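PROTEIN–LIGAND DATA SHEET

This sheet pairs a single protein chain with one bound small molecule, zinc ion, given as SMILES. Inputs appear in the order they were entered. The predicted three-dimensional arrangement of chain and ligand is reported afterwards as a token string under its own label.
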Amino acid sequence: MFRSSRIRNLLTLTAIAASLCLPSQGASLPSEKNRRISNPPAALKSIGWPRLYKYSKYYNTKTYDVHILGTTEVSDEKMLLVAEFIDNMISALKSPQDRAKFAGHHICLIGSKDPDLGELGSIPNQRNAGGKNVTLLTADAINHIARDDQGNEFFRGWNIPAHEFGHTIELKLELQKRSDQVFSSNEGNYNLKMKREYFAWASETWFNSSRSKVTRDKMPKWQYDYLATIFDAANKWVPSSVSQQGQAVLPIKRN
Ligand SMILES: [Zn+2]
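PREDICTION REPORTED AS:
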């Protein structure tokens, strides 16, 4: 359920997630007047483990009625970038019934100065997690330049949200049994202890966001065929990383 792909990260530490900017076939950007960030509605403040954080920002994606919550550490720009990303990832789902299941979902954004879940008495060392009804993301690690332990610069594109929201999709659409069957019978060196990670990793690849640089058109056929039963293969949207400095983001109005 949680991002624990440390081994994989080590293998791909120097890889750069160079997401391509392709014509969007997903949800369109909200119009200027709809790009409003407000205070969170009181009813949304007590949800699952992210209730541990204090949210001061709120945005509703409208398209699928997804709640985006952010702490004071999260920029308005990142709130909207993530909202757009989530809308597009849901839009990529094949079935309208599946898309409708995300109404009321919570995306919780925290900053690097916010404590991790372990410091709050929950899961140790976790700052990103994909659950059935809540997805927790560290905003600073999205679409941002970062450094590895050796000081080498690498680009954190959209691998973390694609991964964590991949977990959310698998749980929300109850794909666990299908995933277990597909990955256990096809994946070389299948690790039972990591069985909940395979779909999340494949989601990164489907949206060309994997730091391994493997893209949708290069993924194994069996994996592509499985994901193509869930996502619409004709939908070529992948997240753009051009707005890493925030330039591509339209002005924001606060209520
Ligand atoms: Zn994971």
